[in-house]
Amino acid sequence: MSLSTAVSEVDDWYVVSVHGDLDMATAPTLRQFISTLHMSRPLMILDLRGVGFIDSTGLGVIIGVLKRLRTADGELRVAVDVARVRRVFEITDLTKVFRLYNSPEEAVADPYD
How many domains in the chain? Predict the structure, then answer.
């Protein structure tokens, strides 16, 4: 399955919407897309509500984005409501690293630390 991405802006946040499977074949597409964003605003919400599957390569890209944003004193929040995708974050203990939300709106409403 192919991967599609789009970006929008809500308040001070970039919202990157992802649709498709995020795996070894498609993860480079997400990495490339995010690298084209101007990082003058290092607050990002990754909207994974359109993702049906994620593997370790996809998680690696997301962790790379987090590291990049943190070096710019930014933050990455993840919106995910698909149970099997959310479960991957839970079983890998990445819920200790990422703030997970059910929607981008919920993520924006949470005050930034």
Answer: 1
Q: What is the mean pLDDT of the segment spanning 75-99?
A: 95
Distance in angstroms (rounded) separating the CA atoms of residues 75 and 29: 21
Residue 45: Cβ-neighbour burial (10 angstroms; 0-12, 13-18, 19+): buried
Based on the number of CB atoms within 10 Å of its own CB, is 106 exposed (0-12), middle (13-18) or buried (19 or more)? middle
Q: What is the pLDDT of residues 17-70, one digit of tens each?
A: 999 999 999 999 999 999 888 667 789 999 999 999 999 999 999 999 999 999
9, part of any domain: yes
113 in a structural domain: no
d(CA 29, CA 16): 13
| Domain that residue 59 falls in | 4-108
User: Which tokens go with 23?
Assistant: 């795996």
